[in-house]
Amino acid sequence: KRVSVVLFCQTGVYYGSKLELRAKPEDDEYWNSSKFSAFTFDDEDDEFTKMKESKRAVNSILVDDDDDDDDVEKVSWSGEPIGSISWSVKETASSFRSSGEQSFPKIDTAPSLPKQGSGYSLSSLFKAFTDTSTRAYAPELRKPKSECKDYMSDWSPEETVRRMRKGRAYSLERFRSLQDKLLLLDEAVSLHDGNVITAVLIYLKRSLSKEILFRELMVREVALRHYVHYLKEMGEQKLLLMQYKEHLNIKDEGRRRDFLKSCLSLPFSQDDAMHVQDHYTLLERQIIIEANDKRGEAEIFRKYPRKASILNMPLITTLYYSCFYHYGEPEGTFSSPANIRKTFRISEKQYILTALGARAKLKSWFDVDSLFNTKNWLGYTKKRSPIGFHRVVDILQKNNAPAQVLQEYVNLIDDPELRLSLAQKYKCHDIVIDTYKDLKDRQQLIVYQGKVERGSHEDRKIEELINNMQIRWKN
Amino acid sequence: MAQSGRRDAPELPDFSLLKRLARDQLIYLLEQLPGRKDLFIDADLMSPLDRIANVTTLKQHEVDKLYKVELKPIVSTADQLCFLIRPRIQTVKWISDVVNLDKAAGRLRRYKIIFTPQKFYACEAVLEEQGVFGDVTCDEWAFYLLPLDDDIISLELPEFFRENFLEGDQRWVGAAGGALRLIHSLYGPFSKVYGIGQCAKMVYESWREQVEDGEQKTQQPEIGNVFLIDRDVDFITPLCSQVVYEGLVDDIFRIKCGSVEFGPEVTSSDKSIKVMLNSQDKVFNEIRNEHFSNVFGFLSQKARNLQTAYDKRRGMDIQQMKAFVSEELKGLKQEHRLLSLHIGASECIMKKKTKQDFQELLKTEHSLLEGFEVRECVSFIEEHINRQISMIDSLRLLCLLSLTENGLLPKDYRSLKAQYLQSYGIEHLLTFSNLKQMGLLVEQQPGETLTVMESKVGKLVNDKTAGKLTDAFSSLAKKSNFRALSKRLVLIPKSGEEYDLRVPRDMAYIFSGAYVPLSCKLIEQVLERDGWTGLEEITRMLNGHEFAVSGGANGTESRIKADSQRIVLVMFLGGCTYSEISALRFLGRERGYKFIVVTTAITNSGRLLEALLDNHP
């Protein structure tokens, strides 16, 4: 009698509610044999039809399921029909009484579809479960059957998880069949107590094979996430990215590089595979550069000794380093800025910013100039920049560029307002005066005259301008 | 200072009781291991412990030496070891090692682990596996709630955020329910509980079942209403730069357990000073909720008043002077000390925040919130990344961009991610994966309509590979719908209008008048409507999971309980910011409520994002 009750519960409580998500073999068979499979659509061709088709099919399954329900009433342990009022009252009040007057109603906490999923978690788990070195547990030493016959063995899954939550005595030994185990797990999940869920999972881990446990967890998102987190904390789990993360634990750079190389074969997404490849190439590069530069023979290393090794630094830091110590090396050398720029597909903007920072730090104003120089077809040089010239001025100023260098770049700022404010800030008088002249703002010129030194070159220039009647001042 | 508000605002309950309870329970547990013992304390329990007990208390109960848990071999020579820890597998493994080392060396000791706020089965399983179960006794110290101030109570569980929202582990649901049960038993019965969020629902259920476990309530309620809210209902607010004094201090100096350490740059001496920041500090209490632009004026006024008070001494006779010294001087000196500290802190903040960079940062944030010149924002963020300035700020802006725009354009996502990895290290791949899973930084699904999504769900049934299952789930990833929400709830005040930060007209003042925090706006709306009626569209955009339930209290008592009905306990699951607390205080003053904030931890943009970084072993 008991066996049949368990079966009904399974159909009603667990199987039915999970149906939409399950990819059980039976379902597949159903799909293959169903009349809908006669329609052959390419995957993306007509998703709408497919959706309707799926929906109808799902509904039809649910209907079948309902039919089952009609045939046999679901019965709980005590024999009351599941879902009946008396059953649910008993269920919530089996071991405790509500305080009547102040009681709050229950709200439905059944999880809807999971809100989000990582691009990796599930598919990569396959890998995790086959890859991780097996942690062998001694087979549970089970108590002889006769001992299980005490009152504990009578507790239902609900009672058991509730006792667990309250920290009371419980026993999981009697949950031996797969169905019982899963019933226990689903009951724990419906209680929303992560502690109990994990406790049940630990028991399942010890008493089920990895393959079976994983197969069942695949259709139980909440339990699965608890399990993954538990393995992570125990240090037993290596998801795809976790495996890659291992490299952070390797101190020796040679071994770290080799480890990264071994990661290249992992099934990353296309984008991430490229990033991991870059990571490997970068470290390989850094090891070569480090070996050469450690000796610090070139003059620049004596003049500006290195503060730290370049190993494991980000790419942009490496580029900066290369612009600082290896500027002007031919593209063929691994340490040259040009080579790094090309190998790692660094954008022009990023390159200019970094090179500018490094060359300005060294006060190589000539190099700074040539960064922005472009020749047009007539051979004239013109300055052009992928970053705003106000940013260039900012960086130059932070590196204490001399006045005339600063002035040249302030003058290149397009926006007159911005140009004016920076020119005033850095006291580039000529630019301020010329800008006001261009803006035909005589009033501001007069105001500005008060800020420059009496009788200076600027003073005279302003005087000349404001008396110039040829200009059509706006005020 | 708009402190006055409605005069009839009810008094807050006295929460010092919580501290007493926790202390007594700890003492009881320590006495369970009679005799001298060394005590090992988890690093993150030290500050909370400091707030409720001191070394003398511990010494009185035969604690000999105190150690910080460092997961290294121990040097203690005591015969009894007691470990006061959070239930973490790592720590329990370490304790097992300690015990096993002793065993191997033939050394006999007694061991006790006190887990707080509760123990986990997984921890006991470790003890069992390591063969030390039984050698070690385990206890639970139900220290759920630490009052940080008159109106702030913290669970001091920062890990709640990552474990619940990123890992999907519901292990703390019971603890949050337990915390609520404790408050209910001391200050309840509650008459209304509102909530929104999946976790909020579970916490409510957990609390409800714990209460039903045989508690009878007859006392006068001190707290009438409860609002539970998940942090993932509103990620935007905690990611914005804070500009209210208390929030700024937290952003810059990091307030830890209600106390801050001001370094030499603030104290203008060579040492650091630790200060408690709460309503006991009269100077702080008056500026904590103010927009930073008002703080300087206030402090200089205060300084002038102080000067006048000191100046009173002139022309006093001996008798008057005596009275002055005994009655006023101490208070003045105390005020003087606090004043100079807060002036120092403000100067330090000014220095950091008036830089060009911060202005541009704020401007970008505001543009994103408003949905104005988004392309400019994208290039600002790009340049921010290119220049390798603050790794966290770059991430914060990226997340704000994603949340306000319902995801990044695929082209932008790929390019900004690549540049981020180049600037700050490729190991941040893991960080990006975490942010994606949380829905904080995602790619826009081009042209995805509801129909397509539904068809994907339908397709699940016959997809054989689990990979596709995941894909379909991630396409269901929560959309933030920020623009629509912001429009419906009027979160962005009309631009162009003058906003007087000295006389705030709404909660937007905490963000310079640019944005009303979504979390607080929801609370305001629900309290106003006494439920979610009329907010159906809003909750749909927030992914549902809202509820409003009342206890079966009968109406006759309602007259007596009028005061408690205006005391609202707001519980943030996953952390709340000081700015949100300031906003709620403002709302309380406007509407005659008193808010009590219970939070799993105080958070800010830095802490929130750091919890999701995975660039270290």
From TrEMBL, chain A:
Entry protein name: Spermatogenesis-defective protein 39 homolog
Keywords: Cytoplasmic vesicle, Endosome
Main location: cytoplasm
GO cellular component: early endosome; late endosome
GO biological process, one term: intracellular protein transport
Species this chain originates from: Astyanax mexicanus
Subcellular location(s) per record: Cytoplasmic vesicle; Early endosome; Late endosome
TrEMBL record, chain B:
UniProt GO BP: protein transport; vesicle-mediated transport
Membrane-topology descriptor: Peripheral membrane protein
Pfam families with a match to the protein in the record: Sec1
Keywords recorded for this protein, A-Z: Protein transport, Transport
GO cellular component: late endosome membrane; lysosomal membrane
Subcellular location(s) per record: Late endosome membrane; Lysosome membrane
InterPro entries: Sec-1-like_dom1, Sec-1-like_dom3a, Sec1-like, Sec1-like_dom2, Sec1-like_sf, VPS33_dom3b
Subcellular location, principal: membrane
Name of this chain's protein: VPS33B late endosome and lysosome associated
